[in-house]
């Protein structure tokens, strides 16, 4: 039996695909080039380099330090549905739809030597779970590092923005930043004390390296 949440997820996937002009195949499992080291519950792509799917969660490279790029994905979930411990990841122009109260990111950067860093650029965050029911993220590990920039945040985002993993969670080394976001959920005046606002956007070479445009698996027309 297909659950109500599954039906809604599939409907959202199909709406997104129609808007993007992508025809979805019947199968939807695997890992593909623009997220070459990502492990996802469900993902698809087409030959044009355009990735789109309703994802329950993305687990980013638990055993590698490679960087990753996800372009124009539709990502949906509820609790910690973008998570991982080691990769540097750039999310470009993704539609992110929380399907219930929860947290979007759970970066697991363990220490200073760990390169893990998530940057969500030009994202659109929206949902129907209610005003202020979703947090941008919470620190899975003590050096958790996430930036949300140039993005549209709806009123589904809680005014605090970010949340501790648990009450005694040490946030002294957490790096949670925002820059140039818009929408009701983008107001930073009530954000938690362990987050902040950047003076400039994180440049894409910071994550992907100076020569990222020459990589065969990156289609720059989607950037």
Automatic annotation (TrEMBL):
Q: Does the keyword Hydrolase apply?
A: yes
Provide the E.C. number(s) assigned to this enzyme.
3.1.1.11
Alphabetical list of Gene3D superfamilies matching this protein: Single-stranded right-handed beta-helix, Pectin lyase-like (2.160.20.10)
The lineage's top-level taxon is Eukaryota
Annotated region (Disordered), positions in chain: 1-20
Q: Where is the Pectinesterase catalytic domain?
A: 74-197
Query: Which pathway does it serve?
Result: Glycan metabolism; pectin degradation; 2-dehydro-3-deoxy-D-gluconate from pectin: step 1/5
Give the GO molecular function terms.
pectinesterase activity
Residue ranges annotated as coiled coil are none
Note the InterPro entries from the entry.
Answer: Pectin_lyas_fold, Pectin_lyase_fold/virulence, Pectinesterase_Asp_AS, Pectinesterase_cat
Q: Catalyzes what? A: [(1->4)-alpha-D-galacturonosyl methyl ester](n) + n H2O = [(1->4)-alpha-D-galacturonosyl](n) + n methanol + n H(+)
Which EC class does it fall in? hydrolase
Write out the similarity annotation: Belongs to the pectinesterase family.
User: What is this protein's record name?
Assistant: Pectinesterase
Native source species: Phytophthora fragariae
- Lineage start: Eukaryota, Sar, Stramenopiles, Oomycota, Peronosporomycetes
């Amino acid at each position: 039996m297909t659950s109500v949440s599954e039906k809604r997820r599939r409907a959202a996937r199909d709406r997104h695909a129609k808007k993007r002009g992508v025809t979805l195949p019947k199968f939807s499992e695997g890992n593909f080039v623009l997220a070459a080291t990502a492990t996802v519950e469900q993902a698809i792509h087409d030959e044009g380099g355009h990735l789109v799917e309703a994802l329950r969660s993305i687990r980013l490279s638990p055993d590698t330090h490679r960087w990753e790029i996800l372009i124009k994905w539709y990502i949906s979930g509820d609790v910690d549905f973008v998570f991982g411990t080691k990769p540097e990841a750039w999310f470009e122009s993704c539609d992110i739809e929380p399907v219930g109260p929860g947290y979007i990111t759970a970066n697991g950067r363990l220490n200073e030597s760990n390169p893990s860093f998530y940057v969500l650029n030009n994202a659109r965050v929206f949902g129907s779970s209610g005003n202020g029911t979703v947090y941008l993220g919470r620190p899975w590990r003590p050096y958790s590092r996430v930036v949300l920039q140039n993005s549209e945040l709806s009123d589904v985002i809680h005014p605090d923005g970010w949340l501790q993993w648990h009450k005694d969670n040490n946030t002294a080394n957490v790096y949670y930043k925002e820059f140039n976001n818009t929408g009701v959920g983008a107001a930073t005046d009530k954000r938690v004390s362990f987050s902040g606002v950047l003076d400039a956007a994180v440049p894409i070479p910071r994550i992907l390296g100076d020569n990222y445009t020459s990589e065969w698996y990156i289609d720059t027309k989607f950037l």
